[in-house]
Task: structure prediction
Amino acid sequence: MADSDIGADRVLTVDFFPPQQLAAALAGEGAGHYELGGSDRHFPLDEWTLVSHTLDVRADGSAVLSIVYERRR
Result:
């Protein structure tokens, strides 16, 4: 089904986090706050809805975060 068929715009964002950026949080040394590569600014939640996300933490300590946002037309 195309986006035009459901009356919404959808966007997929992908952010990469290198191992050194996540090391402290993965070692249990406290929570981390990480910039989302601008997706939080480009898709503000007062206009867009976060409909799905995945976080893949890799063996080398890096991570990939993907987020799907949706905005009704």
In short: Residues 3-72 form one domain. The longest strand covers residues 8-17. The chain has one domain: 3-72.
